[in-house]
Amino acid sequence: MKKGVESEILAKTGNDSVTRRSMLRLRPQKWLNDEIINYFLKNCLASRDEKLCAKDPGRRRSHFFNTFFVQTLFNEKNVDRKIKGQYNYEMIRRWPKLVPTRNIFELKYIFCPINSNNKHWTLAVIYMEAKKIQYFDSLGGTDWEKLEGLLKYVKDEYRATHEDKEMMDANEWKLVPCTSDTPRKMNGEFHFFIFFGLCQS
After folding, report:
1. Domains plus CATH for the chain?
2. Helices first, then strands: H and E counts in the chain
3. For the whole model, what pTM was predicted?
4. pLDDT tens across 25-44, in order?
């Protein structure tokens, strides 16, 4: 895999592809990029979830936001320091249209990959039925700002889909930090995403 043009496409499903450059990031001690994470979420986990739901009509769908969801929700790419990092629901207001049910409140889980300071990938999972948002980090950390922001997103989405009404059970929701039984970093972050993606979905 090392030999060849870095831009060569080594994996392709529909309109999604992974280049040799990205594949090389699967080696130990390498930083995964958006291309790898997004390809895995959409073509492995989301595809698996769709097949499971097809076999079981009573099973609730899950949704796997790509790596740009949290970045956009928190204006993390904004060059203005006053705005960068600030929560802004309007930036992702149309994103739920990409959800299989077009309504997040009909989902079972929502997976939100998080780029932590451009150094490390973590994962937040919104449990729509259990009314909790949990943080998973193979290094054991917890980004409370992201957890609180995702809960605010759920509340804002409720208002947007229920004629501006407040979410009645908002006080029942819990924010769960990374727990001690969360497996610590194994042989690379990709294994971490595989483990939690398959277990939770």
Report:
1. 34-200 (3.40.395.10)
2. 6, 7
3. 0.84
4. 777 777 778 888 888 888 88
